[in-house]
Queue: 2 jobs
Job 1
Amino acid sequence: MNDKAADRSISQTVRAQLALRDMVLSGQLRAGERISELQAVDITGVSRTPVRMALVRLEDEGLLQAIPSGGFMVKAFSERDILDSIELRGTMEGLAARLAAERGASARQLEPLKQCLGDIDELVRQDPISVDAFSAYVALNARLHALLNELCGSAPVMRQIDRVAALPFASPSAFVMAQSALPEAHQILLIAQDHHRAVIDAIENREGARAEAVMREHARLAVRNLRLALRSRTHLDLLPALTLVTQAADK
Protein backbone atom coordinates (compact mmCIF):
# COMPACT_ATOMS: atom_id res chain seq x y z
CA MET A 1 0.00 0.00 0.00
CA ASN A 2 1.47 3.36 -1.00
CA ASP A 3 1.40 6.41 1.28
CA LYS A 4 -1.69 7.97 -0.32
CA ALA A 5 -3.65 4.74 -0.07
CA ALA A 6 -2.60 4.32 3.56
CA ASP A 7 -3.67 7.88 4.40
CA ARG A 8 -7.01 7.31 2.67
CA SER A 9 -7.59 4.11 4.65
CA ILE A 10 -6.80 5.86 7.94
CA SER A 11 -9.13 8.72 7.02
CA GLN A 12 -11.97 6.30 6.23
CA THR A 13 -11.38 4.44 9.49
CA VAL A 14 -11.63 7.65 11.49
CA ARG A 15 -14.74 8.68 9.56
CA ALA A 16 -16.42 5.35 10.30
CA GLN A 17 -15.29 5.41 13.93
CA LEU A 18 -16.72 8.90 14.51
CA ALA A 19 -20.00 8.08 12.75
CA LEU A 20 -20.57 4.87 14.71
CA ARG A 21 -19.51 6.45 18.01
CA ASP A 22 -21.97 9.28 17.42
CA MET A 23 -24.78 6.78 16.75
CA VAL A 24 -24.08 5.02 20.04
CA LEU A 25 -23.75 8.17 22.13
CA SER A 26 -26.81 9.80 20.51
CA GLY A 27 -28.96 6.81 21.38
CA GLN A 28 -29.52 5.66 17.78
CA LEU A 29 -27.83 2.36 18.64
CA ARG A 30 -29.08 0.93 21.92
CA ALA A 31 -27.38 -1.18 24.58
CA GLY A 32 -27.38 -4.82 23.51
CA GLU A 33 -27.96 -4.01 19.84
CA ARG A 34 -25.83 -6.02 17.41
CA ILE A 35 -23.76 -4.34 14.68
CA SER A 36 -22.34 -6.40 11.84
CA GLU A 37 -19.60 -5.27 9.49
CA LEU A 38 -22.05 -5.13 6.60
CA GLN A 39 -24.48 -3.03 8.62
CA ALA A 40 -21.65 -0.65 9.58
CA VAL A 41 -20.65 -0.39 5.89
CA ASP A 42 -24.22 0.60 5.00
CA ILE A 43 -24.40 3.12 7.84
CA THR A 44 -21.07 4.83 7.20
CA GLY A 45 -20.62 4.42 3.45
CA VAL A 46 -17.07 3.20 4.10
CA SER A 47 -15.59 -0.04 2.78
CA ARG A 48 -15.24 -3.16 4.93
CA THR A 49 -11.55 -2.99 5.86
CA PRO A 50 -11.62 0.49 7.46
CA VAL A 51 -15.03 -0.31 8.99
CA ARG A 52 -13.55 -3.41 10.60
CA MET A 53 -10.71 -1.30 12.03
CA ALA A 54 -13.22 1.30 13.28
CA LEU A 55 -15.25 -1.37 15.07
CA VAL A 56 -12.13 -2.74 16.73
CA ARG A 57 -11.18 0.77 17.88
CA LEU A 58 -14.63 1.29 19.38
CA GLU A 59 -14.26 -2.02 21.16
CA ASP A 60 -10.94 -0.76 22.53
CA GLU A 61 -12.70 2.43 23.71
CA GLY A 62 -15.22 0.26 25.54
CA LEU A 63 -18.33 1.22 23.56
CA LEU A 64 -18.64 -2.11 21.74
CA GLN A 65 -18.14 -5.75 22.66
CA ALA A 66 -17.12 -8.45 20.19
CA ILE A 67 -19.61 -11.30 19.81
CA PRO A 68 -18.15 -14.82 19.48
CA SER A 69 -20.51 -15.61 16.60
CA GLY A 70 -19.30 -12.52 14.72
CA GLY A 71 -19.94 -8.82 14.77
CA PHE A 72 -20.17 -6.48 17.74
CA MET A 73 -22.73 -5.46 20.34
CA VAL A 74 -23.29 -2.07 21.94
CA LYS A 75 -22.22 -2.33 25.56
CA ALA A 76 -24.19 -1.29 28.59
CA PHE A 77 -22.34 0.25 31.54
CA SER A 78 -22.79 0.05 35.26
CA GLU A 79 -22.44 3.19 37.30
CA ARG A 80 -19.33 1.61 38.84
CA ASP A 81 -17.69 1.26 35.39
CA ILE A 82 -18.10 4.99 34.86
CA LEU A 83 -16.93 5.92 38.36
CA ASP A 84 -13.75 3.91 37.82
CA SER A 85 -13.10 5.65 34.49
CA ILE A 86 -13.61 9.09 36.04
CA GLU A 87 -11.28 8.19 38.92
CA LEU A 88 -8.66 7.03 36.44
CA ARG A 89 -8.91 10.31 34.51
CA GLY A 90 -8.56 12.28 37.74
CA THR A 91 -5.45 10.29 38.65
CA MET A 92 -3.81 10.94 35.28
CA GLU A 93 -4.78 14.62 35.12
CA GLY A 94 -3.55 15.01 38.68
CA LEU A 95 -0.19 13.54 37.67
CA ALA A 96 0.00 15.94 34.71
CA ALA A 97 -0.75 18.92 36.97
CA ARG A 98 1.88 17.85 39.49
CA LEU A 99 4.52 17.45 36.78
CA ALA A 100 3.60 20.87 35.34
CA ALA A 101 4.01 22.49 38.75
CA GLU A 102 7.26 20.71 39.59
CA ARG A 103 8.84 21.38 36.20
CA GLY A 104 7.68 24.99 36.14
CA ALA A 105 5.52 26.91 33.67
CA SER A 106 6.45 30.29 32.24
CA ALA A 107 4.14 33.30 32.19
CA ARG A 108 3.90 32.87 28.43
CA GLN A 109 2.73 29.26 28.84
CA LEU A 110 0.17 30.22 31.47
CA GLU A 111 -1.28 33.15 29.51
CA PRO A 112 -3.61 31.06 27.26
CA LEU A 113 -4.88 29.25 30.37
CA LYS A 114 -5.65 32.52 32.13
CA GLN A 115 -7.40 33.83 29.02
CA CYS A 116 -9.53 30.69 28.84
CA LEU A 117 -10.26 31.00 32.56
CA GLY A 118 -11.48 34.55 31.98
CA ASP A 119 -13.73 33.43 29.12
CA ILE A 120 -15.31 30.80 31.38
CA ASP A 121 -15.75 33.43 34.11
CA GLU A 122 -17.96 35.43 31.74
CA LEU A 123 -20.18 32.39 31.16
CA VAL A 124 -20.57 31.31 34.78
CA ARG A 125 -21.56 34.83 35.84
CA GLN A 126 -24.90 34.16 34.12
CA ASP A 127 -27.63 32.96 36.47
CA PRO A 128 -29.52 31.10 35.22
CA ILE A 129 -27.14 29.83 32.55
CA SER A 130 -28.67 29.23 29.13
CA VAL A 131 -28.31 25.98 27.19
CA ASP A 132 -26.26 27.91 24.60
CA ALA A 133 -23.91 29.06 27.37
CA PHE A 134 -23.54 25.46 28.54
CA SER A 135 -22.60 24.48 24.97
CA ALA A 136 -19.95 27.20 24.93
CA TYR A 137 -18.74 26.01 28.34
CA VAL A 138 -18.21 22.48 26.98
CA ALA A 139 -15.81 23.80 24.33
CA LEU A 140 -13.96 26.13 26.73
CA ASN A 141 -13.71 23.45 29.41
CA ALA A 142 -12.22 20.99 26.92
CA ARG A 143 -9.69 23.64 25.85
CA LEU A 144 -8.74 24.45 29.44
CA HIS A 145 -8.16 20.79 30.29
CA ALA A 146 -6.11 20.30 27.12
CA LEU A 147 -3.93 23.33 27.95
CA LEU A 148 -3.46 22.12 31.52
CA ASN A 149 -2.44 18.65 30.38
CA GLU A 150 0.03 20.02 27.82
CA LEU A 151 1.89 21.89 30.56
CA CYS A 152 3.25 18.61 31.95
CA GLY A 153 5.57 18.32 28.94
CA SER A 154 5.24 14.54 28.96
CA ALA A 155 4.12 12.80 25.77
CA PRO A 156 3.52 9.44 27.55
CA VAL A 157 1.30 11.06 30.20
CA MET A 158 -0.67 12.99 27.58
CA ARG A 159 -1.22 9.81 25.52
CA GLN A 160 -2.63 8.05 28.55
CA ILE A 161 -4.90 10.98 29.39
CA ASP A 162 -6.24 10.91 25.82
CA ARG A 163 -6.88 7.18 26.14
CA VAL A 164 -8.74 7.41 29.42
CA ALA A 165 -10.73 10.48 28.34
CA ALA A 166 -11.98 8.43 25.37
CA LEU A 167 -13.56 5.88 27.73
CA PRO A 168 -17.36 6.14 27.84
CA PHE A 169 -18.47 9.07 30.02
CA ALA A 170 -14.92 9.76 31.27
CA SER A 171 -14.19 13.05 29.47
CA PRO A 172 -14.17 16.30 31.50
CA SER A 173 -17.42 17.52 29.92
CA ALA A 174 -19.24 14.19 29.64
CA PHE A 175 -22.24 15.22 31.75
CA VAL A 176 -22.26 19.00 31.33
CA MET A 177 -25.18 19.15 28.91
CA ALA A 178 -27.31 16.81 31.02
CA GLN A 179 -26.36 18.89 34.05
CA SER A 180 -27.66 22.04 32.31
CA ALA A 181 -31.27 21.08 33.06
CA LEU A 182 -30.69 20.53 36.78
CA PRO A 183 -31.36 23.10 39.53
CA GLU A 184 -27.84 22.54 40.92
CA ALA A 185 -26.24 23.47 37.57
CA HIS A 186 -24.96 26.94 38.41
CA GLN A 187 -23.51 25.90 41.77
CA ILE A 188 -21.58 23.01 40.21
CA LEU A 189 -20.11 25.25 37.50
CA LEU A 190 -18.96 27.74 40.12
CA ILE A 191 -17.22 24.96 42.05
CA ALA A 192 -15.60 23.66 38.87
CA GLN A 193 -14.35 27.13 37.99
CA ASP A 194 -12.91 27.55 41.48
CA HIS A 195 -11.00 24.29 40.91
CA HIS A 196 -9.71 25.59 37.57
CA ARG A 197 -8.44 28.77 39.20
CA ALA A 198 -6.87 26.87 42.11
CA VAL A 199 -4.92 24.43 39.92
CA ILE A 200 -3.56 27.21 37.71
CA ASP A 201 -2.47 29.08 40.85
CA ALA A 202 -0.81 25.92 42.22
CA ILE A 203 1.06 25.32 38.97
CA GLU A 204 2.18 28.94 38.82
CA ASN A 205 3.50 28.70 42.39
CA ARG A 206 5.13 25.30 41.75
CA GLU A 207 3.01 23.54 44.37
CA GLY A 208 2.95 20.04 42.91
CA ALA A 209 1.05 18.20 45.64
CA ARG A 210 -1.65 20.88 45.75
CA ALA A 211 -2.04 20.89 41.95
CA GLU A 212 -2.42 17.11 41.91
CA ALA A 213 -4.96 17.09 44.75
CA VAL A 214 -7.08 19.80 43.13
CA MET A 215 -7.27 17.98 39.79
CA ARG A 216 -8.23 14.71 41.43
CA GLU A 217 -10.97 16.45 43.39
CA HIS A 218 -12.05 18.27 40.24
CA ALA A 219 -12.60 15.00 38.39
CA ARG A 220 -14.95 13.88 41.15
CA LEU A 221 -17.36 16.66 40.21
CA ALA A 222 -18.16 14.45 37.23
CA VAL A 223 -19.28 11.77 39.70
CA ARG A 224 -21.72 14.26 41.21
CA ASN A 225 -22.95 15.20 37.75
CA LEU A 226 -23.42 11.54 36.84
CA ARG A 227 -25.54 10.82 39.89
CA LEU A 228 -27.63 13.94 39.40
CA ALA A 229 -28.15 13.09 35.73
CA LEU A 230 -29.16 9.51 36.54
CA ARG A 231 -31.54 10.76 39.21
CA SER A 232 -33.23 13.10 36.73
CA ARG A 233 -33.64 11.02 33.57
CA THR A 234 -36.42 13.33 32.34
CA HIS A 235 -33.82 15.24 30.30
CA LEU A 236 -32.38 12.33 28.32
CA ASP A 237 -32.68 14.44 25.16
CA LEU A 238 -29.61 16.34 26.43
CA LEU A 239 -27.57 13.17 26.96
CA PRO A 240 -29.23 10.18 25.23
CA ALA A 241 -26.20 7.99 26.02
CA LEU A 242 -27.41 7.78 29.62
CA THR A 243 -29.69 5.00 28.39
CA LEU A 244 -26.51 2.86 28.22
CA VAL A 245 -26.14 3.11 32.00
CA THR A 246 -28.14 0.22 33.36
CA GLN A 247 -27.08 -0.48 36.91
CA ALA A 248 -26.13 1.52 39.99
CA ALA A 249 -22.81 0.95 41.70
CA ASP A 250 -22.69 -1.16 44.82
CA LYS A 251 -22.82 0.93 47.95
Job 2
Amino acid sequence: MTNPPPGAAVVTGAAGGLGRAIAAALHADGWPVLLTDLDAEAVAVAAAPLGGWSRALDVRDEAACAAVADEAAAEAAARGARGGLGLWVNNAGILVTGPSWEQDAATRRRVVEVNALGAMNGTLAALAVMRAQGHGHVLNVVSLAGLVAAPGETVYAASKHALVAFSIGTLADLRLAGHRRVHVSCLCPDGIWTPMLHDRLDDPGAAASFTGTLLSPELVARRAARLARRPRPVVSVPRWRGAQVRLFDAMPGVALRLAPLILAAGRAGQRRQLRRTGADQHRRNPAR
Protein backbone atom coordinates (compact mmCIF):
# COMPACT_ATOMS: atom_id res chain seq x y z
CA MET A 1 0.00 0.00 0.00
CA THR A 2 1.31 3.44 -0.92
CA ASN A 3 2.43 5.55 2.01
CA PRO A 4 0.32 8.65 2.63
CA PRO A 5 1.83 11.85 1.21
CA PRO A 6 3.86 14.02 3.59
CA GLY A 7 1.35 16.86 3.99
CA ALA A 8 -0.82 19.03 1.79
CA ALA A 9 -0.01 20.21 -1.73
CA VAL A 10 -0.49 23.61 -3.37
CA VAL A 11 -0.69 23.96 -7.16
CA THR A 12 -0.61 27.37 -8.85
CA GLY A 13 -2.23 28.05 -12.20
CA ALA A 14 -4.58 25.13 -11.52
CA ALA A 15 -7.82 26.33 -13.12
CA GLY A 16 -7.13 24.42 -16.32
CA GLY A 17 -4.54 22.83 -18.57
CA LEU A 18 -1.51 21.23 -16.98
CA GLY A 19 -2.13 22.74 -13.54
CA ARG A 20 -5.55 21.16 -13.29
CA ALA A 21 -4.15 17.83 -14.51
CA ILE A 22 -1.35 17.95 -11.91
CA ALA A 23 -3.84 18.71 -9.15
CA ALA A 24 -5.97 15.75 -10.25
CA ALA A 25 -2.96 13.42 -10.36
CA LEU A 26 -1.83 14.51 -6.90
CA HIS A 27 -5.37 14.08 -5.55
CA ALA A 28 -5.47 10.56 -7.00
CA ASP A 29 -2.17 9.86 -5.24
CA GLY A 30 -3.68 10.85 -1.90
CA TRP A 31 -2.53 14.46 -1.50
CA PRO A 32 -4.96 17.02 -0.07
CA VAL A 33 -4.61 19.67 -2.80
CA LEU A 34 -5.18 23.42 -2.61
CA LEU A 35 -5.79 24.64 -6.16
CA THR A 36 -4.92 28.29 -6.81
CA ASP A 37 -5.29 30.53 -9.84
CA LEU A 38 -5.76 34.14 -10.81
CA ASP A 39 -9.32 33.21 -11.91
CA ALA A 40 -11.18 32.50 -8.66
CA GLU A 41 -14.36 31.15 -10.27
CA ALA A 42 -12.58 28.83 -12.69
CA VAL A 43 -10.29 27.38 -10.03
CA ALA A 44 -13.26 26.76 -7.73
CA VAL A 45 -14.89 24.74 -10.51
CA ALA A 46 -11.65 22.79 -11.05
CA ALA A 47 -11.35 22.09 -7.31
CA ALA A 48 -14.93 20.88 -6.82
CA PRO A 49 -14.31 17.20 -7.75
CA LEU A 50 -10.97 17.21 -5.89
CA GLY A 51 -12.22 18.20 -2.46
CA GLY A 52 -13.32 21.76 -3.22
CA TRP A 53 -10.25 23.49 -1.75
CA SER A 54 -9.26 26.53 -3.80
CA ARG A 55 -8.05 30.11 -3.50
CA ALA A 56 -7.53 33.02 -5.85
CA LEU A 57 -3.83 33.77 -6.14
CA ASP A 58 -1.76 36.17 -8.19
CA VAL A 59 1.72 34.67 -7.95
CA ARG A 60 3.23 38.12 -8.48
CA ASP A 61 1.98 39.03 -5.00
CA GLU A 62 4.63 37.91 -2.53
CA ALA A 63 2.45 38.44 0.55
CA ALA A 64 -0.43 36.50 -1.01
CA CYS A 65 1.86 33.54 -1.71
CA ALA A 66 3.02 33.57 1.91
CA ALA A 67 -0.58 33.63 3.13
CA VAL A 68 -1.48 30.63 0.95
CA ALA A 69 1.53 28.67 2.23
CA ASP A 70 0.53 29.35 5.83
CA GLU A 71 -3.09 28.44 5.13
CA ALA A 72 -2.13 25.18 3.44
CA ALA A 73 0.03 24.14 6.38
CA ALA A 74 -2.68 25.03 8.91
CA GLU A 75 -5.47 23.39 6.93
CA ALA A 76 -3.42 20.23 6.48
CA ALA A 77 -3.15 19.94 10.25
CA ALA A 78 -6.88 20.61 10.63
CA ARG A 79 -7.69 17.90 8.08
CA GLY A 80 -5.48 15.43 9.88
CA ALA A 81 -2.87 15.28 7.12
CA ARG A 82 0.54 14.66 8.64
CA GLY A 83 3.42 16.91 7.74
CA GLY A 84 1.89 20.35 7.19
CA LEU A 85 2.83 21.79 3.79
CA GLY A 86 4.40 18.89 1.94
CA LEU A 87 4.46 20.13 -1.64
CA TRP A 88 4.23 23.40 -3.55
CA VAL A 89 3.93 23.19 -7.35
CA ASN A 90 4.77 26.39 -9.23
CA ASN A 91 2.88 25.81 -12.46
CA ALA A 92 1.46 29.25 -13.30
CA GLY A 93 3.02 30.62 -16.47
CA ILE A 94 2.38 32.58 -19.65
CA LEU A 95 3.77 32.24 -23.16
CA VAL A 96 4.54 35.05 -25.60
CA THR A 97 6.07 34.46 -29.00
CA GLY A 98 7.90 36.38 -31.68
CA PRO A 99 11.21 38.27 -31.79
CA SER A 100 12.03 39.98 -28.52
CA TRP A 101 12.28 43.39 -30.21
CA GLU A 102 8.62 43.14 -31.23
CA GLN A 103 7.41 42.85 -27.62
CA ASP A 104 6.87 45.96 -25.57
CA ALA A 105 8.31 46.53 -22.12
CA ALA A 106 5.03 45.74 -20.36
CA THR A 107 4.80 42.35 -22.09
CA ARG A 108 8.40 41.44 -21.26
CA ARG A 109 7.90 42.50 -17.66
CA ARG A 110 4.70 40.47 -17.29
CA VAL A 111 6.35 37.29 -18.62
CA VAL A 112 9.29 37.60 -16.25
CA GLU A 113 7.09 38.57 -13.31
CA VAL A 114 4.80 35.56 -13.71
CA ASN A 115 7.19 32.86 -14.95
CA ALA A 116 10.28 33.72 -12.94
CA LEU A 117 9.48 36.12 -10.10
CA GLY A 118 6.09 34.50 -9.47
CA ALA A 119 7.72 31.09 -9.11
CA MET A 120 10.36 32.63 -6.86
CA ASN A 121 7.60 34.09 -4.68
CA GLY A 122 5.93 30.71 -4.40
CA THR A 123 9.18 28.90 -3.73
CA LEU A 124 10.25 31.26 -0.97
CA ALA A 125 6.79 31.30 0.62
CA ALA A 126 6.80 27.50 0.69
CA LEU A 127 10.37 27.29 1.96
CA ALA A 128 9.60 29.61 4.87
CA VAL A 129 7.17 26.94 6.08
CA MET A 130 9.15 23.89 4.99
CA ARG A 131 12.44 24.98 6.54
CA ALA A 132 10.69 25.55 9.86
CA GLN A 133 8.93 22.17 9.80
CA GLY A 134 12.06 20.38 8.56
CA HIS A 135 10.76 18.87 5.34
CA GLY A 136 8.94 19.64 2.11
CA HIS A 137 9.28 19.80 -1.65
CA VAL A 138 8.96 22.64 -4.17
CA LEU A 139 8.31 21.41 -7.70
CA ASN A 140 8.84 24.04 -10.38
CA VAL A 141 7.20 23.36 -13.73
CA VAL A 142 9.69 24.80 -16.20
CA SER A 143 9.87 23.68 -19.85
CA LEU A 144 12.47 22.37 -22.23
CA ALA A 145 12.77 26.08 -23.07
CA GLY A 146 14.46 26.42 -19.69
CA LEU A 147 17.30 24.19 -20.92
CA VAL A 148 17.95 25.66 -24.35
CA ALA A 149 17.39 28.97 -26.15
CA ALA A 150 14.16 28.63 -28.11
CA PRO A 151 13.96 30.91 -31.17
CA GLY A 152 10.58 32.59 -31.42
CA GLU A 153 10.05 32.15 -27.68
CA THR A 154 13.05 34.14 -26.51
CA VAL A 155 11.57 36.09 -23.60
CA TYR A 156 9.62 33.05 -22.42
CA ALA A 157 12.79 30.92 -22.57
CA ALA A 158 14.77 33.59 -20.71
CA SER A 159 12.22 33.55 -17.88
CA LYS A 160 12.40 29.76 -17.71
CA HIS A 161 16.21 29.75 -17.74
CA ALA A 162 16.07 32.09 -14.76
CA LEU A 163 13.77 29.66 -12.95
CA VAL A 164 16.13 26.72 -13.52
CA ALA A 165 19.10 28.70 -12.19
CA PHE A 166 17.09 29.89 -9.19
CA SER A 167 15.83 26.37 -8.42
CA ILE A 168 19.19 24.60 -8.58
CA GLY A 169 20.98 27.41 -6.73
CA THR A 170 18.32 27.43 -4.01
CA LEU A 171 18.60 23.66 -3.63
CA ALA A 172 22.38 24.01 -3.21
CA ASP A 173 21.85 26.75 -0.62
CA LEU A 174 19.45 24.50 1.29
CA ARG A 175 22.00 21.69 1.40
CA LEU A 176 24.77 24.06 2.48
CA ALA A 177 22.49 25.30 5.27
CA GLY A 178 21.94 21.73 6.47
CA HIS A 179 18.37 21.22 5.15
CA ARG A 180 18.51 17.64 3.86
CA ARG A 181 14.78 16.96 3.77
CA VAL A 182 13.69 20.10 1.92
CA HIS A 183 13.83 19.62 -1.85
CA VAL A 184 13.51 21.71 -5.02
CA SER A 185 12.86 20.04 -8.37
CA CYS A 186 12.48 21.26 -11.94
CA LEU A 187 10.13 19.46 -14.32
CA CYS A 188 10.99 20.33 -17.94
CA PRO A 189 8.39 18.93 -20.35
CA ASP A 190 8.32 19.20 -24.12
CA GLY A 191 5.35 20.95 -25.76
CA ILE A 192 2.04 20.07 -24.11
CA TRP A 193 -1.32 20.20 -25.85
CA THR A 194 -3.05 22.62 -23.47
CA PRO A 195 -4.84 25.95 -24.00
CA MET A 196 -1.41 27.62 -23.97
CA LEU A 197 -0.80 26.12 -27.44
CA HIS A 198 -4.34 25.70 -28.74
CA ASP A 199 -4.29 29.02 -30.57
CA ARG A 200 -0.64 28.75 -31.70
CA LEU A 201 -1.07 26.41 -34.66
CA ASP A 202 -0.71 29.28 -37.14
CA ASP A 203 1.92 31.13 -35.12
CA PRO A 204 5.44 30.75 -36.60
CA GLY A 205 6.88 32.12 -33.37
CA ALA A 206 5.61 29.04 -31.50
CA ALA A 207 7.15 26.52 -33.91
CA ALA A 208 9.80 25.48 -31.35
CA SER A 209 7.06 24.07 -29.14
CA PHE A 210 6.01 21.69 -31.92
CA THR A 211 9.43 20.24 -32.82
CA GLY A 212 8.82 17.10 -30.76
CA THR A 213 5.76 14.97 -30.12
CA LEU A 214 3.12 16.96 -28.27
CA LEU A 215 2.49 15.57 -24.82
CA SER A 216 -0.85 15.23 -23.10
CA PRO A 217 -1.30 17.15 -19.82
CA GLU A 218 -2.28 13.89 -18.14
CA LEU A 219 1.02 12.22 -19.07
CA VAL A 220 3.06 15.12 -17.73
CA ALA A 221 0.88 15.29 -14.62
CA ARG A 222 1.56 11.63 -13.86
CA ARG A 223 5.29 12.31 -14.13
CA ALA A 224 4.87 15.30 -11.81
CA ALA A 225 3.09 13.13 -9.25
CA ARG A 226 5.97 10.62 -9.32
CA LEU A 227 8.50 13.43 -9.01
CA ALA A 228 6.56 14.79 -6.03
CA ARG A 229 7.27 11.53 -4.21
CA ARG A 230 10.87 11.13 -5.42
CA PRO A 231 12.53 14.55 -5.81
CA ARG A 232 15.26 15.09 -8.41
CA PRO A 233 16.90 18.41 -9.33
CA VAL A 234 15.95 18.36 -13.04
CA VAL A 235 13.68 15.96 -14.92
CA SER A 236 12.87 16.33 -18.62
CA VAL A 237 9.86 14.76 -20.31
CA PRO A 238 10.58 12.82 -22.42
CA ARG A 239 14.09 12.12 -21.22
CA TRP A 240 15.62 11.88 -24.71
CA ARG A 241 14.41 15.37 -25.58
CA GLY A 242 16.16 16.74 -22.53
CA ALA A 243 19.41 15.16 -23.69
CA GLN A 244 18.87 16.54 -27.18
CA VAL A 245 18.27 20.14 -26.17
CA ARG A 246 21.16 20.06 -23.69
CA LEU A 247 23.41 19.03 -26.59
CA PHE A 248 22.20 22.02 -28.60
CA ASP A 249 22.75 24.24 -25.57
CA ALA A 250 26.33 22.99 -25.26
CA MET A 251 27.02 23.78 -28.93
CA PRO A 252 25.31 27.12 -29.65
CA GLY A 253 27.11 27.60 -32.95
CA VAL A 254 25.76 24.31 -34.27
CA ALA A 255 22.30 25.11 -32.88
CA LEU A 256 22.26 28.44 -34.70
CA ARG A 257 23.18 26.82 -38.00
CA LEU A 258 20.50 24.17 -37.53
CA ALA A 259 17.81 26.65 -36.40
CA PRO A 260 16.12 26.93 -39.84
CA LEU A 261 15.81 23.13 -40.08
CA ILE A 262 14.58 22.84 -36.49
CA LEU A 263 11.91 25.50 -37.00
CA ALA A 264 10.86 23.93 -40.31
CA ALA A 265 10.27 20.71 -38.39
CA GLY A 266 8.26 22.69 -35.86
CA ARG A 267 6.07 24.26 -38.54
CA ALA A 268 5.46 20.77 -39.96
CA GLY A 269 4.42 19.72 -36.45
CA GLN A 270 1.98 22.62 -36.30
CA ARG A 271 0.43 21.53 -39.59
CA ARG A 272 0.11 17.94 -38.37
CA GLN A 273 -1.56 19.08 -35.18
CA LEU A 274 -3.88 21.35 -37.13
CA ARG A 275 -4.97 18.42 -39.30
CA ARG A 276 -5.36 16.23 -36.22
CA THR A 277 -7.46 18.75 -34.31
CA GLY A 278 -9.53 19.45 -37.41
CA ALA A 279 -10.27 15.74 -37.76
CA ASP A 280 -11.15 15.53 -34.06
CA GLN A 281 -13.52 18.47 -34.41
CA HIS A 282 -15.17 16.86 -37.42
CA ARG A 283 -15.72 13.63 -35.47
CA ARG A 284 -17.32 15.56 -32.62
CA ASN A 285 -19.50 17.64 -34.95
CA PRO A 286 -20.09 15.62 -38.16
CA ALA A 287 -22.01 17.24 -40.99
CA ARG A 288 -25.67 16.25 -41.07
